[in-house]
Task: structure prediction
Amino acid sequence: MSDPIEEGLLLAPKFDADGLVTCVATDAKSGELLMVAHMNAEALKRTVESGEAWYFSRSRKALWKKGESSGHTQRVIEMRVDCDQDAVWIKVEQHGPGACHTGRRSCFYRVVPLKQTGAVALQFRDAEKTFDPSAVYDKK
Amino acid sequence: MSDPIEEGLLLAPKFDADGLVTCVATDAKSGELLMVAHMNAEALKRTVESGEAWYFSRSRKALWKKGESSGHTQRVIEMRVDCDQDAVWIKVEQHGPGACHTGRRSCFYRVVPLKQTGAVALQFRDAEKTFDPSAVYDKK
Result:
């Protein structure tokens, strides 16, 4: 007897206690991991219906269209869901110079050295700024 | 003034209310997204110290070494942390035929069709089983 969540054809997202699933966004062409964020039911629905990435900000507790401030929107080329349906993967066409609010292409610009104990010193990698965040985001 | 979490060299993971960060595992060679899981402080520490992937299972509420039941361990080739340090990315050498407990290489074997409204019918993609999970996992 196969599990309908894992082997079925119905999209049945398993939202966590806060009503969220994890979303991983990669660059559809290069495969590069751009960002990890969250979607609530409404963000997921809007993403599926529009083909543009919508997220839910845990810190701001707000639905959020990627690029609504920066103009750096994400067109979704393909969306997948994982076995237990608590994570989605979107392959996106990233518009503009970057996905990260720090001004970089990807949010993952620091390496954690391995085989170490105690306090870990990160190493910057692929960390060039591709845009100036202070020029892109609305000043509040 | 730059934010030490975003621009600093100290690994300072931002664990959520359950004490977890999200972990994305990709194949170090192909770049393929294999799985999304979670790490608590102990899983992160063990992964950094050993170079082997450890996770924390939200459903079982237990620390878990990837491959402890299946033998399908993950050697971590590189680990990165994201801007706000609530997600880590590990590029792994996946041992054995797959990362997914359903018997597949990746957990992301179903596509969510876009530009649709209402109930969504998933489409299987890259969904070949590479091993028989009933033969690999301990029977309880």
Notes: The CA atoms of residues 113 and 119 of chain B lie 11 Å apart. The helical segments of chain B are 4-7, 41-50, 133-136. Chain B touches chain A through 50 residues (CB under 8 Å).
